[in-house]
Design a protein that fits this description.
mainly beta; 2 domains; five-stranded antiparallel β-sheet; 6% helix; globular
Length: 216
């Protein structure tokens, strides 16, 4: 199950995900909002929505994973409540994130090759600069300006977290800094998680989102 980061308002909901979920068809996708424990149905009121459109970035590269971002448009509106709140876009493309701690959230494996939990988990990870990431064990040219690296030691996203959000807490809001994209294993030394750098796509996101629905 993917944790999908919500960006907009109750009027015209769109969900931001990775683009490399290419085999997914909109008729097969259901988005569950407000869920915490996937093994129960009565714990917290959640809602399910079908998809009316998938908007993939036209420059997505299946070899490099550049531009690994897409939007899902929900078929019906969603009313926000205590369990379902929007995640805001970055306020600016020029804000320096390196050295900040962020939170990655999802239902992915708790360790490499481990089991999938029924309850959503989160882990705090440090964000690396582009030069720091290129100095790791990845081939330097593999890490592009459209990517962001985060993680240290055992603190990392894992299989099943792909498409999920990397969040930064700012005041009373959360902003989405990255989308879980790719990596080598989970929590391996020298291989931090690699995320789509959302700030690089503000113009693309705003072009594809209704201005009245933006949360920044």
């Amino acid at each position: 199950m993917l944790f999908l980061a919500m960006l907009t308002s109750a009027l015209d909901i769109k969900i931001v995900i990775r683009a490399h979920s290419k085999r997914l068809k909109k008729s097969k996708i259901r988005v569950i909002l407000g869920d915490h424990d996937a093994s129960t149905s009565g714990e917290v009121p959640s809602m399910m929505r079908a998809i009316s459109a998938i908007i993939r970035h036209k420059k997505f590269d299946t070899e490099t994973y550049n531009h690994d971002i897409a939007l899902l448009k929900l078929r019906k509106p969603v009313q926000f409540n205590k369990q379902i709140r929007p995640i805001c876009l970055p306020s600016s493309a020029s804000v320096e994130l390196a050295g900040m701690n962020a939170t990655v959230v999802g239902w992915g494996r708790l360790s490499e090759g481990g089991h999938l939990p029924s309850v959503v988990h989160e882990v705090e990870v440090p964000i690396l600069s582009l030069s720091q990431c290129r100095a790791m064990r990845y081939r330097a040219s593999r890490i592009t300006q459209y990517m962001l690296c985060a993680g240290s030691g055992s603190r990392d996203s894992c299989q099943g977290d792909s498409g999920g959000p990397l969040l930064i807490h700012r005041g009373d809001k959360y902003q989405i800094a990255g989308i879980v994209s790719w990596g080598v294993g989970c929590g391996r030394p020298g291989y931090p998680g690699v995320y789509t750098r959302v700030a690089k796509y503000l113009n693309w996101l705003k072009f594809n989102l209704d201005e009245s629905c933006l949360c920044t």
